[in-house]
Amino acid sequence: MDLMHHSSTFLLPTIPLHHGPSLTYALVVLNQTLPRFAPLLWKHAQLRLCADGGANRVFDEMPLLFPEEDASDVRRRYKPDVIKGDMDSIRKEVLDFYRSLGTEIIDKSHDQDTTDLHKCITYIRDFAPDVNKSSQLCILVAGALGGRYDHEMGNLNVLYCFSALRIVLLSDDSLIYLLPRTHHHEIHIQTSVEGPHCGLIPIGVPSRSSTTTGLRWNLNNTEMRFGGLISSSNIVVGEKVTVQSDTDLLWTISIKKL
Ligand SMILES: Nc1ncnc2c1ncn2[C@@H]1O[C@H](COP(=O)(O)OP(=O)(O)OP(=O)(O)O)[C@@H](O)[C@H]1O
Ligand SMILES: Cc1ncc(C[n+]2csc(CCO)c2C)c(N)n1
Predict the structure, then answer these.
(1) Starting at the edge strand that comes first in sequence, how are the strands of the sheet with 231-235 ordered?
(2) A Gene Ontology MF term for this entry (predicted)?
C-alpha cells in the first residue's frame, strides 16, 4: 500500500524544502474569528477564497492583526481572489469593497443543500486548474473548528465529501485532517508549533483494526468505535507518527500557543 506523508509546514514562517513533491496551498476563510496565524496561511497560499461571511472576517479582523498600519492598506493587501457562498452573511459594504478591487464573486444562493465551505472546495477542485494541476494541492480551512457544533460537523463532513483531496481544518487550538484508508500514513510532527496532544477518531464507521507508532498509547491491531474505544487525549512522543487502518480516520493535533 502506498505511503502518504503529512506535515504541518504551513504553520512555519517559511516552508522548508524537502525531498518529496512540494505542496501547493489554497486557503478558505470561514465566518469565524480569524486564527492569529491567518496572515501566515495567506502568505503561503496561492489561491485565497472567502466562504460568504468569511469575507467580513478578513475585512474586519485583518486590520486588527496589524494595529500599527492603516486599516485600508491592510484590507487592500489581503484581497481574496474569490468570495463564494449563498451570500446571506456577507455585508454589502464588504461585498462592494472587494468587488471594486476585482475579487471574483460567485453567488450560489439557489443552493441551500451544501454549505459555503463545500461550495468553495468545489470551486478549487473544478475551476482552479493552475493550482489544481499539481496532485499535491492542499486546502487550508481557517476558522473551521469551535463555534457552532452543526457548522463544525458540516465542516468535518466536507473532509469525507472530498476524501481524495488534502484538506486541513484549522482553529487557533487544533487542526484536523482525514487519513484515507487507501494509504499508510507517516505524519511528521512540527514540534515547534504543534503537539503534543492528539487524537485518532473513527468517525462514520467503526475501525476493526488500526495500528500506530509514535504515540504514548499506540494501537496494535486495535478496534475503535464510538460507544467503545476512540483514541482521544493521546500524546505524540517523537517527531514521527505512523498510522494504518482499515477505515478512514480523523487525525487531530493541538496547535501550540506562542
Ligand atoms: N460558528 C461556526 N463554527 C464553525 N464553522 C462556521 C461557523 N460559522 C460559520 N462557519 C463556516 O463558515 C461558512 C460561512 O459561514 P456563514 O455564516 O456565511 O454561513 P451560513 O450559511 O450563512 O450559515 P448559517 O446560515 O447556517 O448561519 C459556513 O459554511 C461554515 O463552514
Ligand atoms: C436535510 C437538510 N438539512 C439542512 C439543510 C439546510 N442547509 C444545509 S446546507 C445549507 C446552506 C448553508 O449555507 C442549508 C440551508 C438542508 N438543505 N437539508
Answers:
(1) 104-107, 82-85, 45-51, 24-29, 137-142, 166-170, 174-179, 249-255, 194-201, 231-235
(2) thiamine binding
